[in-house]
Design goal:
By secondary structure, the chain is of the alpha/beta class. The chain is built from eleven helices and 23 strands. It has two domains: 215 residues, 3-Layer(aba) Sandwich (Rossmann fold), CATH 3.40.50.300; 142 residues, Hypothetical Protein Yjia, Chain: A,domain 2 (2-Layer Sandwich), CATH 3.30.1220.
Length: 380
């Protein structure tokens, strides 16, 4: 899999009124967005500033004064991108160096991520860089409680943008930030005022950065966001003996209970022994067959018994991208780490299912979850 040749894709999501339009109007003015193709669901609905448009043909790629490009998502994503790139080539123009896809406010972004993995034409030309989710600071808490789509948008995001922060006082921001962190502890949070946020801060969340020609495994997986519980010299942690434990689950918080009675869990599942290919395949097949729709997003760095180099694995619900081999020197140890965002799937369920396929003698210890607060960044 040649990651260096694939065009990065950023997915911009967020519930209705969360500030995506304001953000896009700022973004398309930035020099760094030149030769970026912005794919939107309905051009009329997005409300991009007409002063940015240098030629208008709603059936074609719209060129903007900034050098950014825009097209309308009509039908499926694969056909839209093929038509856009064919049109650019017919005009003697280069293919876009980046794609930003804006979803509708009521959309679950998971199908877009799945299409990037499963569509043959897309998978050989594009790779997901990041999922960016806008959250309205004034109405975010109520929206998360009332709308399942909003919860899922937050759960699978890599970056969370707290918008409209001028409409609330500082005392209301902290509870929202903590609520977002309880749903998705690994996602960076940024406070945004009037859409003023550099696009450069929102790219580069993928496992490979073509501009720097390096693999950023730790930044992509963010397993450190899930607090690791250390044993003392006696091998005892939280009152339990884990000296011979080979499996562990780390989590930052108690599962988030939504208004719909659903629990969103975020946790890191670690396996110290090398995993046999059959155990990995059988375990994942069982997880997907039993609870595929509830496995919102999975990222993993895996070490198998039949190969020296580690593998990167990315899944959304029941769909997985083919494992991608990584250089030997991109990780410091041989521990396999799986980061799960799930809905109504408890961490211990994942561990118990693994034990069906793990080598005999492997034990599981589940450390007590410890709550943590979220730190947010401010970009004005």
């Amino acid at each position: 899999m040649q990651l260096t040749k694939l065009t990065p894709v950023n997915v911009l999501t967020g519930f209705l009124g969360s500030g995506k339009t304001t953000l896009l109007n700022r973004w398309v003015r930035q020099a760094s967005m030149q030769n970026t193709l912005v794919v939107i669901n309905e051009f009329g609905a997005i409300g991009l500033d007409h002063q940015l448009i240098t030629q208008s043909d709603e059936q074609a790629v719209v060129e903007m004064s900034s050098g950014c490009l825009c097209c309308t998502l009509r039908g499926d994503l694969s056909r839209t991108l093929q038509q856009a790139i064919d049109e650019l080539q017919a005009k003697g123009k280069p293919a876009p160096s980046r794609v930003v896809i804006e979803t509708t406010g009521l959309a679950d972004p998971a199908p877009i991520l799945q299409m990037l993995m499963t569509d043959h034409w897309l998978a050989h030309r594009f790779q997901l860089d990041s999922v960016v989710c806008c959250v309205d600071a004034a109405n975010g808490e109520a929206t998360l409680q009332a709308h399942r789509e909003s919860q899922r948008q937050v759960a699978i995001a890599d970056r969370l943008l707290l918008t409209k922060i001028d409409l609330v006082d500082e005392g209301r921001l902290a509870p929202l930030a903590n609520q977002l962190a309880s749903i998705n502890p690994a996602a960076e949070q940024w406070q945004v005022l009037h859409g003023n946020l550099s696009p450069d801060l929102l790219v580069g969340a993928g496992i490979f950065r073509a501009d720097a020609k390096l693999y950023q495994v730790q930044q992509w997986l963010k397993a450190a966001s899930y607090r690791t519980h250390q044993a003392d010299a006696s091998g005892v942690i939280d009152g339990e003996d884990i000296s011979d434990a080979a499996l562990s689950i780390n989590s930052t918080s108690q599962p988030t209970l939504t208004r719909h009675g659903e629990h969103i869990n975020a946790f890191c599942f670690c396996v110290e022994p090398l995993i046999t290919p059959d155990a990995l395949e059988n375990w994942l097949d069982l997880l997907m067959s039993l609870m595929g729709e509830k496995m919102l997003r999975i990222k993993a760095i895996i070490h198998l018994t039949d190969r020296e180099e580690p593998l990167a694995l990315h899944g959304v619900q029941h769909i997985f991208h083919p494992p991608a081999p990584l250089p030997m020197n991109c990780v410091d140890d041989r521990i396999s780490r799986f980061v799960f965002i799930t809905q109504n799937v408890a961490p211990d369920t994942v561990a118990q299912l693994y034990r069906f396929f793990a080598p005999s003698g492997v034990s599981t210890e589940l450390p007590t979850r410890s709550p943590t607060t979220s730190s947010t960044h401010e970009a004005m």
